[in-house]
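QUALITY CONTROL LOG
STEP: pairwise intake check
CHECKER ROLE: data steward
CRITERIA: each record must contain a sequence immediately followed by its C-alpha cells, with no blank fields

ENTRY 1 OF 2
RESULT FIELD BELOW
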Amino acid sequence: MNQQRIAIIGAGISGLACAAELVKSGFEVSVFDKSRGVGGRMSHRYFQEWGADHGAQYFTVKDERFSDELKKWQAAGVVEAWNGKIVSFDHGNVTDLKKETHRYVGVPTMSAPAKYLAESLNVSLLNTITELKHQKPQRGSKNKNGTWQLVSKEHGLLPQEFDHVVLAIPSPQAKVLIGEHSDQLTETCDQVVMLPCWTLMAYLKNPLNLLFDGAFVENHLFSWMARDSNKPGRSPYESWVAQASSAWSLEHIDLSQTEAEMLLLEGFKELTGVECDLYQTHLWRYSRLETPSETNFVLDTYMNMSVCGDWLRNSTVEGAWMSGHALAQRLSLMGSIDTL
C-alpha cells in the first residue's frame, strides 16, 4: 500500500474524481475547498420551496471510462436521464434539434454525483487555501523533493505535511497558489483563457407557456435557458435558469450584481413575455474554457505539484472527471512520490 500523503485543493468533480481514484490505490488524500459544499459548478441553489441548478445544466457521455462511472452513479441513484424537449430558440422561432443527444442530470440536484464521491473521502469545506509552503527534505527523508504545508484563511498554517499537491481549481486561482514554485505550471495557467457566465435563476407563480424544456438561444444575450423544474427529482414549482453567452458576460463582467440583474431580467422578459416573480443571479467568473484541448493534466515531477480540471480539457462534466481520473492514474502508476 502507498502511504504518500496528497493534498487536493478543489472539491469539484475533477478534484473528487482524482481523490477517489488515489484512495483506491492506497494514497492518503485530503481535499480542501473554500465553499460550503462540494461540486464546484455542478451546483444547485435552494430558495425556500424552490431551487435551480445554476451551474452545469446537464452532461453527456462520450468516453467509455466515463460511461463506466455513469453506471456507478446511476446504480447509486444520484443520476438520471433528462428527457426534456431541447430546441433551438431564435426570436420566438422554435426549431427541433435533429441530432439525438442523451443528457443526464444529478438527482435530486446537479450536485448529487459530487456528494456521492465525497462520502468516502476526507473533505474539508470552508477552508480557503491561500498559500503553499514548501519544506526542503530532511536528511534521510524518503521524499527527496521535500514536502508541502498549506496555509488556510480560516485556520492559518495547517499542521499536516503532504508529499504532493494537486490544484483542481480554475487556472487564475491555481496560478496564485503556484506562485514561484513552478514555472512549468505557471506557464500552463498563462496559456489558458477562461470565460465568464452571468446566470439568472427565476421562479414563476404560473407555468411558462413555452413548448420546450431547454433551449439553445440564438442572437440574444442569453445562450441557454431551461425549465429546471422539468428535470427528474426537482421541486414542482416552476423554475427556470437562463445563462448569458460568454461574449455578453465578458463584456459585462464588471457590472455590479444589481446592474447585471436589471439587464438579465429585461432579457428574460423579452424572451418569455413574463416577469420573474422571484429571482437571483450569479456570476461564474471562470465558467468555460475558450479553446478546448486534449490535455488532461500537467505534472511538475520535480516540485511534486500538478494541476487538473475542466479548464485543461474542455468545460464539461465528463472533461472534468476525465482530467482528475487521468492524473490519479498517472500518480498511481508511478507507485511512489519519491520516484517521480
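ENTRY 2 OF 2
RESULT FIELD BELOW
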Amino acid sequence: MLTGLIISTVSMAGIGFILSLILVIADKKLAVKEDPRVEEIEEILPGANCGACGYAGCAAYASAIVQSNAPVDLCKPGGNSVLEKISEIMGVESKGVEPKVARVFCSGGIKETVKDKVYNGVKTCAAADIAGGEKACMYSCLGYGDCVEACPFDAMYMNDNGLPVVILEKCTGCGECVRACPRGIMQLTAYDEVVHVFCSSKDKGPVTRKICTAGCIACKLCEKDDPTGAVKVIDNLARVDYSINKAPVDSIKRCPTKVIRIADPVPGYENLFEEMIEQNRKMVEKIKSSQPEKEGLKKADKKIEVKNKKDENI
C-alpha cells in the first residue's frame, strides 16, 4: 500500500513537472513582445490618468499611440513639451498644442442670486441638477463642487461665495471639470482670450434682473460699444467671437452688471493679453479712421438711388 502511494505521488509530481515545463516553453514561444516605445511614452506622460485624451489612462494612451496610431497630441496636461518628446519617439512631426485653461462662466454666487427652493438631497451638483437646485436661475452654478472633486491637479477650490475658483497657474486644461459640470458653466479657454462674459444665463433681461445681480441682462450695450463686431447678444446672452477679436475691451465699459470683463491672465503669459489688447487698439483705430469714408459712400449711394428712381419715373 505504501509502495502504491509513493508511486502515485512521484507520478503526479512528474506529470506536474512536465506540464509546468510545457507552460514555460509555451510562454516563451508564444509571448507577445511589447514595443519598448510604449514604456518610453508612458514615462513621458504626466501620469495623472485624467482621461482628457479619451483613453482610460496614461498607459492606455501610450499603448494606443504605438499600437493603434492614435494622435500624439491628445495629452492636454502635458502640453507642447510632452508632445515634442512623443513625436520624437514616434518619428512624426508635431504641430503644437494650443494651451487652454478652465474658467467659470457664472458670477452668481450666494450673495448675488435669489434662492427659491430648498434642496435636501445628495450634496453633489449632478444630483442637485436633477432636482433643479436651490437657485432661481436654472443656468447658475449649483455650488456643490463636483468640478473641484473632478480636478486631478488640485487646481480648483470653492470660495466663500459658493462659486468654484480656478488656480490658473496649476490648471492644465485637461477638461475634467468641464465634463463634471452638469450645467456647462465650466469651459476651456485659450490663454490669449482676454475678454469674457462670465455668465451662462439665457433668461430674458427682466427675469435675470429679478433673480441675479451679476447676470447678463441682454441690454446690448456691449454690442453697441464694440466697434469690431466681435461681441453679439444671442439668445439673451452676450457672446464674444474670438475669430474676430480676442480683446474687445471697449465692450466692457458700460456693462451695468459688470459681467463682461477682462479675465485674469495665466501667470507668466501676461504678455499675450498685452499683445491682444494692442491688436484691438489698432483694429479700432483702423475702423474709426474709415468711418467718414464709409459715411460719404453711403450718402453717394443714396443720391444715386434717388436719381435712379427719378429716371425710372420719367
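INTAKE CHECK: passed for both entries
DESCRIPTIVE NOTE, ENTRY 2: Residues 270-313 form the longest helix (44 residues).
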